[in-house]
Design goal:
Layout lengths: L11 E4 L3 E9 L6 E9 L10 E2 L11 E9 L2 E9 L9 E9 L9 E7 L5 E7 L7 E10 L2 E11 L2 H8 L58 E3 L6 E3 H4 L5 E10 L8 E2 L3 H4 L4 E10 L4 E4 L7 E2 L6 E3 L14 E4 L6 E12 L7 E9 L4 E5 L9 E9 L4 E10 L7 H9 L11
Parallel strand pairs: 12-23
Antiparallel strand pairs: 1-11, 2-6, 2-8, 3-4, 3-7, 5-6, 7-10, 8-9, 10-11, 13-25, 14-15, 14-20, 14-22, 16-17, 16-21, 18-19, 19-20, 21-24, 22-23, 24-25
Length: about 425
């Protein structure tokens, strides 16, 4: 369904009860704000809990019905994707709201804003709505899926909020964790003299009344509020403190979204979707680590060095995924509950086979702490014959965890492996032997 078949605002259409791919898209360019897709699962117009918001900091619903899959860029157009499986939506949920929030501007500055629904398995068009009347809004409800007599429909909505993702989320019942600022004391009214001091009475004042009994605590403690903030690293601002963001415990998940610019243009893919891009393309996410006790090593698929989360090195690679499944991909997880055991971790990616360099790839790196704000950044275009790229360096400075954007393409010398090239560039000082997987 092309733009010329776009649905009018307020109209609806039937959709199949199946797995669907929802693409929020716009044309990027200088001065165009970034945008982020989100979804809210509603029962009677409100969320049931804060877990019913799916977005970059909370990328999957517990039911498996909705998942945030991240951004792609191709031919000057950017899309942020949600995977919605209507067969897995819980019976209590009657509406799935599909929205977007602008980061660094308003939707009046975002050209060619649209939402397109596709069949997740076949890729065929299901519904599309092009929004053309945005002005000062910083959050926008583009569409929604809703139940009618046991079937699902899609409605083109096109209504915005000037209060961003926070306003959108709180309107549907989400509790948002935002810093609270104490209000300044009210100024004194001019021209009114201060009241005279009160003379203490001769008789002692009566004792204060007994304090009221504190209310009983709730039987079930409320969950932590949703944190909406995120951090984007750039060349000008390449580092961030995880400690200051509150991300110093739990699991830190690292992944890489990418797509090919030229010969495979339009085949946007999550990291590892090798089959869709090239039958023998195999990329490996890896990490060099140095622990506080001085021990060093590598976590990678090569040599089956997948690591471990609850014993040294407290880093784990989920597996070597060559199928390109959107639901899995390759994920590297760091256990921040053992942050004191780390000295530094360097996350990098190599081409194992299928291509000679990262030329023509467009990639975004996301570090998602279990607690605290997501950290993301884009890789620069690769213009050198590089089969290895240093992505991010995580350093424990003693009182802080710092994430540094590297985005550094390296060129191995003749006969030198990509892993040894990274080692030499960052002074790890390890001994290397040939490995296979």
């Amino acid at each position: 369904m092309g733009a010329d078949m776009s649905m009018p605002k307020g109209s609806n259409t039937a959709v199949p009860t199946t797995a669907l791919r929802v693409e929020v898209g716009w044309r990027g360019g200088p001065g165009v704000p970034d945008a982020d897709a989100s979804a809210l699962l509603l029962a009677g117009g409100k969320v049931r809990s804060d877990g019913d918001l799916v977005f970059y900091n909370q990328p999957a619903h517990s039911s498996g019905a909705v998942r945030h899959e991240g951004k792609r860029a191709a031919d000057g157009r950017v899309t942020d994707t949600l995977h919605v499986d209507l067969t897995r939506v819980e019976p209590a949920v009657d509406t799935v709201v599909l929205a977007a929030s602008a980061d660094g501007g308003t939707f009046g500055q975002v050209p060619e804003l649209s939402i397109e629904v596709k069949d997740a398995a076949q890729g065929g068009p299901v519904a599309r709505f092009d929004s053309a009347d945005a002005t000062v809004e910083t959050a926008f409800v583009l569409g929604e899926f809703y139940r009618r007599q046991g079937a699902w429909k899609f409605r083109a909505v096109g209504q915005g909020y000037s209060s961003g993702l926070q306003g959108l989320a709180t309107d549907f019942g989400i509790t948002v964790d935002e810093p609270q600022h104490a209000a300044p004391p009210p100024p004194s009214a001019p021209g009114i003299p201060a009241a005279p001091p009160v003379t203490a009475p001769d008789t002692p004042p009566p004792p204060p009344p007994a304090p009221a009994r504190a209310p009983a605590p709730p039987a079930v403690p409320s969950a932590a509020p949703v944190r909406l903030t995120k951090v984007t690293l750039t060349k000008a601002a390449p580092a961030v403190s995880l400690t200051k963001q509150g991300g110093t415990s739990g699991a830190l998940r690292v992944n890489l979204n990418w797509q090919v610019r030229k010969q495979f243009s339009g085949w946007g893919a999550k990291f590892g979707r090798a089959v869709a891009l090239h039958s023998d393309l195999d990329l490996d996410l890896c990490a060099l680590y140095e622990l506080a006790d001085g021990s060093k090593g590598v976590v990678q698929a090569l040599g089956n060095a997948f690591g471990a989360l609850h014993r040294p090195p407290y880093i784990h690679l989920d597996g070597d995924d060559r199928t390109g499944s959107v639901a899995t991909g390759e994920n590297l997880t760091v256990n921040l509950d053992f942050k004191d055991a780390f000295r530094r971790i360097l996350v990098f990616v190599t081409i194992y086979e299928g291509a000679r360099s990262f030329a023509d790839l467009n990639a975004t790196v996301t570090l998602q702490p279990q607690h605290g704000a997501a950290v993301d950044f884009s890789l620069d275009e690769c213009t050198v014959p590089s089969p290895v790229c240093a992505l991010a360096l995580i350093t424990n400075t003693g009182g802080d965890l710092i994430v540094q954007r590297e985005a550094r393409y390296l060129i191995p010398a003749h006969g030198v492996s990509p892993q040894r090239t990274v080692d030499q560039a960052y002074g790890w000082g390890m001994n290397w032997t040939p490995g296979r997987k």
